[in-house]
Amino acid sequence: xxxxxxxxxxxxxxxxxxxxxxxxxxxxxxxxxxxxxxxxxxxxxxxxxxxxxxxxxxxxxxxxxxxxxxxxxxxxxxxxxxxxxxxxxxxxxxxxxxxxxxxxxxxxxxxxxxxxxxxxxxxxxxxxxxxxxxxxxxxxxxxxxxxxxxxxxxxxxxxx
Length: 160
What we know:
Blueprint: H1 17-50, H2 55-112, H3 118-140
């Protein structure tokens, strides 16, 4: 029995519903414009065969139609880019909101389980290190001998 060939599977990136809808709309628009152009060409050919339109008139009409199609395509692209920019902005805002909700949920779970947060652990570690440095400072400091106090005290106001 021959060994099966191993082929690498391509992983498809998930397409969002909005992105998928935009793609479908754009493809539909392009197809509709292409079909309209083809229909116009067929109609012009029929008119030319009947002799009701001259070739120069047909070429001029086709040129005008192509110019209009170009303008409509550019307009559709501009509208799609604007809508896509709005969707991207909205997605960024939603991503931030979801991040905040997730952080709040995690903090709530940690608080319910009485588990310190990373910030609290960091703060406690910093305080322990600070106290350790103070203790080490006390250990290293040389012991001072008390000063001898003068036997005679000078009274206030009396000449020395």
